[in-house]
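Reviewer 2 asked us to include a model.

Predict the structure of this chain.
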Amino acid sequence: MAGTAGPVAVVVLAIIAIWYMAAVALNTPFQRDVYQRGNQADVPFTQLIADTLAQDRPVLPAPHQVLTEIYETTFEKKITSKRSLIYHSGITLSSTLLGFLIGTSLGILLAIGIVHSRVLDKSLMPWVISSQTIPILAIAPMIIVVLNAVGISGLLPKAMISTYLSFFPVTVGMVKGLRSPKVIHMDLMHTYSATRIQAFWKLRLPYAVPYLFTSMKIGMAASLVGAIVGELPTGAVAGLGARLLAGSYYGQTVQIWSALLMAAFLAGSLVALIGVFEKVTLKRMGMAR
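Predicted model (structure tokens):
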């Protein structure tokens, strides 16, 4: 860990430096217009830089502006306040976790069926792959409208969009994992007259566990994206998607970027949590890497 801290710090500092330079470059035209309207001439370059990094509605907010917004909406607002990022993150997190749970369960069941049935492998797998070619922004409103038409609203429609994005990596990963045992090991199970269920529990599933956790990490990130996208067509007033939408409506770019960074932090935390479960599970199974 100590050996990787230095390179990571260098990359982070480089990103921050590039971000600041981009903010100055993109915000300078508007700032020069402000100077012209105020009949200000020969403004020092240092003041120009300072002013471009302190605009109320910048084209690209500076890192310190975004961090200040996150701090104010996280620590200086009550959790129940609709201006609190924690409140909005909790709304998005609930639909993310529900969609991830449904998507993971569906993906595992589909993978088991595909591996053990040649008919499902030939007929279902192509449809599973084809389903991901449909843009989520196109299908999300359709899901919301259809579910609302049958009286289902609230958390579940957003969770279904998360399910749509998260089940695919789990399905593909589990199929790969369940088929990963070597032929000689499968032959050994046949030699012991093991049933398909016994071969599944004692051979296929243990081999598939590392693949499952890897695909779950991808599925969790995709599930969060689905939850945010699901909040956009509903005109939601709560959730990180709603914060992005409101910031877009009113030109609050700092609010947009703070919601984006919070979503990235949330996704990173959830993926890291899955990584912890992965290490514990593989260690108990004697498969720690």
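The radius of gyration is 24 Å. Residues 2-37 form the longest helix (36 residues). We have added this to the supplementary material.
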